[in-house]
């Protein structure tokens, strides 16, 4: 039930801050009820409770923490009808997409339950003492410990999978960190329903109430205060480059700076190599149109920059035919719609850019699909052409030859994904490009597009700056837990005082590296 209440300390209550309403982007109307924003006292209370809950929560057994994550997934499934209906109204996203996103959300909670139960993420290492050695070696044991309370900013474009009970919340809770969510004002009701599902799971599993909180605010004050609070140990964020950089600056200026895992801006270059273009240029163009327009292009993995060797006429023909038939779809918020329109207008007005094709015109907050084109010389003349236009807008850049394409790649900023469309005859060229792609992006994919990130063990959803603030990590997949951990060594610590996974009897049966030899999970 959506009441517009903050969730703090296991209780739901109205905030004393400024109230706001959710917005229906399809109808262009506000939606009841009022969401009472948090104030700075609420920030202090939520952070205090999270800090107080930390020791008890991090001491939970692996089994208890895994069961907690599963309980959240079950509660979300129990509330699915209400969750999906509210998310549909608040975001304008179609039911099938939201249903899939809910499956992804519960799936990632269950993935982390498995990761926690297994215990391999603790990366336990034991180097027994070598008293006979000269000089003698102490007994040294390593385990990863959680960082502390984590602030999670819900993302506007994934109201379930990157929001209140989304990936950052799941990975931080899995690591043993309490979570305080700053809900995105684009879908506050969805956030409240999901937040209540988490809060219920906290109570059902007998965990301290400070393990989870959810705060609303239509402005930036509460998010900034949460990031600055000395009890907060890390931040997870998905959104604009401006927002992510502002939070990174706040975190860096604290007396004790903390990591901000910000996923920000990416144009996800797509390389069209000559063999692939000759073999199936038109089909690639059609597939590209689908990836570009998916979810109104509101994906950080959206293919915004296409680099082709030569004229790529078949690709253009395929893309043109498909895009001209694509109906416009509602974008998430008036702000995102306005930013998209401004970005598209700037490209339309740019002297060096021409529009290849646009989709059907929309009304209200609907976004119209666009494909523009320019040459590599144009891009060099105005490097701002590669800046992200968030939405279904792509820029096709025609390169003179492979060297020209490689030189353009050198100039690009860090990316979440890089896609290569290649036939076997292109592999020698692709081989020469791979070292650059490995330095450029978090994920390299062949003959596909980066939208629709798989949640699995091997996924990296990250990338060098400014794709993310810290390219050494991922926000999706099992490895995301590592962002909220740090290694601690125990030297000659009595067995009674060691974490259980470091004791000789290893009661939870976690995999360990003992005197240089990796052991398997014992369960
Ligand atoms: N690359 C990507 O994955 C994505 C990029 N975007 C980009 O972001 C634009 C705006 O979309 P939106 O999703 O609202 O992203 P924003 O970055 O504007 O906002 C994301 C969240 O961060 C908060 N926030 C933003 N700036 C600050 C700040 N200086 N201090 C504290 N908190 C802050 C916002 O609060 P509040 O809203 O309350 O102000 C919101 O909760 C889009 O047009 C698009 O360009 C958006 C989504 C994903
Ligand atoms: O493409 C996806 O599945 C995820 C994209 C994403 O992380 C985002 O758009 O913020």
From TrEMBL:
Pfam families: Aldedh (PF00171). It comes from the Bacteria. Residues 18-451 form the Aldehyde dehydrogenase domain. Keywords: Coiled coil, Oxidoreductase. It catalyses: 2,5-dioxopentanoate + NAD(+) + H2O = 2-oxoglutarate + NADH + 2 H(+); 2,5-dioxopentanoate + NADP(+) + H2O = 2-oxoglutarate + NADPH + 2 H(+). Its EC number is 1.2.1.26. Residues 59-86 form a coiled coil. One of its GO terms (molecular function) is 2,5-dioxovalerate dehydrogenase (NADP+) activity. InterPro entries: Ald_DH/histidinol_DH, Ald_DH_C, Ald_DH_N, Aldehyde_DH_dom, Aldehyde_DH_Superfamily, ALDH_KGSADH. Belongs to the aldehyde dehydrogenase family. This is 2,5-dioxovalerate dehydrogenase. It comes from Brevundimonas goettingensis.
């Amino acid at each position: 039930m959506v009441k517009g209440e903050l969730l703090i300390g296991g209780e739901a209550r109205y905030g004393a801050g400024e109230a706001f309403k959710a917005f229906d982007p399809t109808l262009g109307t506000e939606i009841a009820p009022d969401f009472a924003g948090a104030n700075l006292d609420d920030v202090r209370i939520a952070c205090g409770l999270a800090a107080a809950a930390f020791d008890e929560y991090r001491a939970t057994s692996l089994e208890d923490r895994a069961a907690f994550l599963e309980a959240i997934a079950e509660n979300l499934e129990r509330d699915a009808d209400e969750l999906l209906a509210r998310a549909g109204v608040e975001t304008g996203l179609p039911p099938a997409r939201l249903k899939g996103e809910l499956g992804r959300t519960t799936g990632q909670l269950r993935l982390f339950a498995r990761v926690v139960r297994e215990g391999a993420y603790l990366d336990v290492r034991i180097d027994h003492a070598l008293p006979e050695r000269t000089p003698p070696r102490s007994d040294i044991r390593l385990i990863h410990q959680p960082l502390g309370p984590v602030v999670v900013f819900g993302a506007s474009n994934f109201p379930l999978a990157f929001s209140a009970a989304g990936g950052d919340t799941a990975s931080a809770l899995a690591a043993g960190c309490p979570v305080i969510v700053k809900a995105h004002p684009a879908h506050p009701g969805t956030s409240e329903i999901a937040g209540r599902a988490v809060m219920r799971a906290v109570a059902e599993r007998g965990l301290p109430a400070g393990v989870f909180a959810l705060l609303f605010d239509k402005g930036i004050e509460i998010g900034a205060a949460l990031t600055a609070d000395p009890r907060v140990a890390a931040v997870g964020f998905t959104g604009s480059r401006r927002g992510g950089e502002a939070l990174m600056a706040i975190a860096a200026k604290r007396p004790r700076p903390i990591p901000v895992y910000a996923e920000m801006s990416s144009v996800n270059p797509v390389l069209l190599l000559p063999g692939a273009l000759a073999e199936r240029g038109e089909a690639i163009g059609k597939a590209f149109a689908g990836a570009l327009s998916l979810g109104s292009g509101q994906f950080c993995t959206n293919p915004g920059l296409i680099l082709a060797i030569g004229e790529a006429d078949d690709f253009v023909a395929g893309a043109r035919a498909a895009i001209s038939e694509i109906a416009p779809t509602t974008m998430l918020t008036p702000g995102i719609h306005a930013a998209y329109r401004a970005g598209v207008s700037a490209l339309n007005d740019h002297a060096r850019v021409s529009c290849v094709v646009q989709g059907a015109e929309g009304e209200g907050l609907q976004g119209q699909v666009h494909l523009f084109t320019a040459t590599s010389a144009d891009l060099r003349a105005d490097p701002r052409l590669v800046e992200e236009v968030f939405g279904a807008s792509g820029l096709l850049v025609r390169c003179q030859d492979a060297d020209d394409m490689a030189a353009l790649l050198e100039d690009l900023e860090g990316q979440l994904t890089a896609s290569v469309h290649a036939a076997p005859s292109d592999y020698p060229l692709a081989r020469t490009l791979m070292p650059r792609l490995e330095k450029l992006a978090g994920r390299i994919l062949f003959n596909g597009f980066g939208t629709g990130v798989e949640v699995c063990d091997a996924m990296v959803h990250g990338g060098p700056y400014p794709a993310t603030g810290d390219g050494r990590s991922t926000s999706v997949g099992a490895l995301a837990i590592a962002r909220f951990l740090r290694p601690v060594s125990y030297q000659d610590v009595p067995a009674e005082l060691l974490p259980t996974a470091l004791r000789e009897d290893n009661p939870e049966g976690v995999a360990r590296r003992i005197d240089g030899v990796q052991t398997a999970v014992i369960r």
